[in-house]
Hints:
Blueprint: E1 8-12, H1 17-27, E2 33-38, H2 41-51, E3 59-63, H3 69-75, E4 81-84, H4 91-96, H5 98-118, E5 123-129, H6 138-156, E6 163-169, E7 171-173, H7 179-188, E8 193-195, E9 201-206, H8 207-220, E10 226-229, E11 233-235, H9 236-247, E12 260-262, H10 278-281, E13 284-286, E14 290-293, H11 326-347
Parallel strand pairs: 1-2, 1-4, 2-3, 4-5, 5-6, 6-10, 7-9, 8-12
Antiparallel strand pairs: 9-11, 10-14, 13-14
Amino acid sequence: MSFFRDKTILVTGGTGSIGSEVVRQLLSLKPKAIRVLSRDEHKQYLFQQELGPDAQPVVRYLLGDIRDYPRLLRALEGVDFVFHCAAYKHVPFCEYNSFEAVKTNVIGTQNLVDAAITQGVSRVLLISTDKAASPSNVMGATKLLAEKMMTSAMHFAGSKPIRFASVRFGNVLASRGSVLPLFCKQIERGGPITVTDPDMIRFFMSIPQAVSLLFRAMERMEGGELFILKMPVLRLGDMIDVLVEELAPRFGHDPHAIKRQVIGARPGEKTEEILMTREESQYAVEENDMFVVRPPILLANGEWSEADKKGTIRNGDAAHVQPLSKDQIRTMLSDVLSEYFRASKMHS
């Protein structure tokens, strides 16, 4: 039986790339109700049209902002599980509007913690980012603080039987605001492709893969953990080469005529990302597809018991992970590129 069967689930940021896929996948798992909370009524309308009338008995569309504590209180009434996807995620925008990022990513998360405890929610899972590991920008710093707040909420909740945890992953292929749709549009127009640095390396994963692992984290969380999902590493220059080879001919362009324009790193960007810090790795267990970190504040004497030491931790630094070959990138992107080409033809 599905872990989510007959449960009422709230998805904050439920019309975003990750949140909407959470909703789509939950629908097949027979929940009692799914509440989609987001600020944008137009995206709510489009999502409602996409899901169609068959989803109407289960999916409820709630307008609201996680900055608004009274709204969260009402939205969380009778809720069992929360996927907390709402956040400001664009690194440059957060650099230039830093306190707006704080109000949503930090204060909004605390509002959710408070409201979830008050309303008797069972589990809350925060969706975070690898940019929270040793952050060099405002967005990463706010998400790191949000992760810490989810862990400390296990003490803050007192005797209430509620579990909080976080999932950290990197760039999600084809998500809104990711570089992949931008590169595809630039190739469709015939170039140039604007790339910050072709030697920049990033962790990537697909949206469905990310969500399936979110479900596993929600099901197995004991409280306070940080689940760090393993992801392949891509070199941006290699990904661009594959995109040009695959997409340019489909849109009637000569791949050799597509120019690359190096524009340099944006404010706050790193050349190399890491999945976790050296300090976090001391409290991590490695599994096949993720690391599980239990922070010292939740461990007796700040140490693992011998029974908990199940794996050997490898380096979580992208620089020490072998990047995918171009053929591997091509395989990983095949479905995404076919969908992009299909959608572009429909709109042309």
